Amino acid sequence: MTSDPRAVLTRPAPAPDVTVAYGEHPDQVADLRRPSGTGAPRRLVVVVHGGFWRHEYDRRHTDPLAAALAALGHPVAQVEYRRTGQPGGGWPGTPDDVLAAVTALPRLAAEALPGVVMPTPAVLVGHSAGGHLALHAARHVPDAVAGVLALAPVADLAEAYRLDLDGGAVATLLGGGPADVPDRYAAVDPRSVVPLPTRTVVIHGTLDEQVPIAMSRAYVAANQAAGADMRLVELSGCEHFGLIDPEAPTWSKVTSALRSFGEDH
């Protein structure tokens, strides 16, 4: 593993097999990867990338993650969505795009990957801001989500606003703070409604400097107290980007959590 944890963001990876569109905007697309091998059918894994919802970060930085998951036998879809700093991004386009993608992708993947058997619904894997969007989808379209693997998610937007994560990223997404646009926070902040109705595993590194682990601890504790099927896996010595790096020593923890979403759930 490289000494620079951000190296995964630009590491080359095999190209996806096909790209499908779930909307008319050029960023309303998803890259699909066929699963390797001939093992038992597995659910579609929908990868929702992070980057604090900003247009500077797109799905390409999750290529190593997606390729590794496909190599393990999972059909994979990497979702793109409109982001802040580009037309249609922010409120409400960014969260709406992910809801549309999660709803449409099982059908689109089945059509674009003939011969690949994918039990439905899909499992969502979201990192950082993508973790927020995955939790948002599980809340609003629960029938389309078999489970959520949230990797260092921004699970409390009001707290992220208070902490000024990534220099005002939440205010840029929603157009202000909780006192300015309370209805928007109520609609998309995972912390505003518990319990989450979907089985969820949250993984967070103790050395994360981008999204503090205290946020996941509080979010999971609140959901567990309300009866949610949710657990937190804390990774000692892991920072923010090791969670999406197949070459990181923590990768086995990520794949183990994904396996916990068996086809019997």
Relevant terms:
Rossmann fold; 8 helices; 8-stranded mixed sheet; 31% helix; 8 strands; alpha/beta; 265 residues
Could you characterize what this model shows?
The chain has 265 residues and is of the alpha/beta class. 31% of the residues lie in helices and 16% in strands. The chain has helices at 63-71, 93-112, 129-140, 157-163, 169-174, 182-188, 213-225, 251-259; strands spanning 18-21, 29-33, 45-48, 76-79, 122-127, 145-151, 200-205, 230-235. The N and C termini lie far apart (34 Å). The model has no long low-confidence stretch (mean pLDDT 95). This is Alpha/beta hydrolase. GO terms for molecular function: hydrolase activity. Residues 31-218 form the BD-FAE-like domain.
C-alpha termini separation: 34 Å
Question: So what's the oligomer here?
Answer: single chain
Level-2 CATH architecture? 3-Layer(aba) Sandwich
Report the average pLDDT across residues.
95
Q: What's the CATH superfamily, by name?
A: Alpha/Beta hydrolase fold, catalytic domain
Q: What number of structural domains do the residues give?
A: 1
Instruction: Summarize the main sheet.
Output: 8 strands, mixed
Radius of gyration: 17 Å
The count of helical stretches stands at 8
CATH topology: Rossmann fold
Instruction: Give the helix/strand class.
Output: alpha/beta
Main sheet: which strands, in order across? 1-2-4-3-5-6-7-8
**What is the level 1 CATH name?**
Alpha Beta
> What overall geometry do the principal axes of the alpha carbons give?
globular
